[in-house]
Amino acid sequence: MVPSKIIPKGRGAKVLNIQGHEPDGIWLPHRHDYYEVMWSLESHGHHSIDFIQYPLAKNRVFLISPDQVHDARQLKGGLRVVAFKSELFEHTTRQQATMFTLGFDKAFQVPYLDLDEQGALQLNKLWQLLEEADQEQNSALLESLLSSYLLYLCRYKQDTSLSSEPRALDPRVLKIESLIEQHYRSYKRCDFYAATINLTAKRTNELMRNSRGRTVTTSIINRVCLEAKRELTFTTKPVQTIAQQLGYEDSSYFSRLFKNQEGCSPTDYRLKMFK
């Protein structure tokens, strides 16, 4: 994981205007321990988040969470970036709700939103204030403005998973996905998640199929494989260790599951990533 080197020591956030590939060292595939809001000003280039490639578009805002894999080698043009540490938004229910609405820490949410011209114009005013607060190193003001910045972005965030179109979503689906994110390492069966929300396993799977196009079990496997790919790419842990950390005592079974999902074994995946 790349440390918070773009956030100065003793501060909780940093504002950056980036042209091309600067500052050095943050563009290679990496995982960092802070949140990042990346506002693209032009429609040039692309990057990948958690191994999925996304094109840049004018006034597209990307929302990147800690632990996600970010490959920014093909980013081009102007970018406005706010990086901030998690502890800034752990204090109040309203702040936590803002982060939830924006889709932070949701592995299978589309990690961006698109602003219209009016939205970009209004957000630019907040951006200018953020820059001033950052230059003055006024941490209290920067934190307050960042809260407003994120809250404004919530106006443009639709609930969109990687396998569905924007829609009004049953809150029970959000609850199921939140539970999977918390417990996918320990609980692999639908029954646990169904019992937690007081539904039958059949009804729980119906909700997920209707909203996400996949069952609870498939969602769990997807999340397991995503975490495995992160570990295979950024650590030297043996496959057996990764399997155990993800809740599989039988590493051979885990390897078969991974191959069925990704088309190659964990070992071959690691070799492919380092070619």
Question: What do you see in this structure?
Answer:
The protein starts with 12 loop residues before the first strand and ends with a helix. A hairpin with a 2-residue loop joins strand 3 and strand 4. Helix 1 crosses helix 3. The protein folds into 2 domains: 146 residues, Jelly Rolls, CATH 2.60.120; 104 residues, Homeodomain-like (Arc Repressor Mutant, subunit A, Orthogonal Bundle), CATH 1.10.10.60. Strands 1-7-2-5-8 form a 5-stranded antiparallel beta sheet, covered by helices on one side. A 3-stranded antiparallel beta sheet has the order 4-3-6, with no helix packed on it. By secondary structure, it is an alpha+beta fold.
For the secondary structure, the number of strands is: 8
CATH domain class of the largest domain: Mainly Beta
Number of helices: 10
- Which strand order do you get reading across the main beta sheet? 1-7-2-5-8
Q: How far is the first residue's CA from the last residue's CA?
A: 20 Å
Instruction: Give the biggest sheet.
Output: 5 strands, antiparallel
- Can you tell me the CATH topology of the largest domain? Jelly Rolls
SSE string, helix = H, strand = E?
EEEEEEEHEHHHHHHHHH
* Whole-number total of structural domains: 2
Low-pLDDT runs: none
CATH H-level homologous superfamily name of the largest domain: Regulatory protein AraC
Strand content: 5-15%
Rg, rounded, reads 20 Å
Structural class: alpha+beta
Mean pLDDT: 88
Helix content: 40-55%
Shape: globular
Q: So, CATH architecture of the largest domain?
A: Sandwich
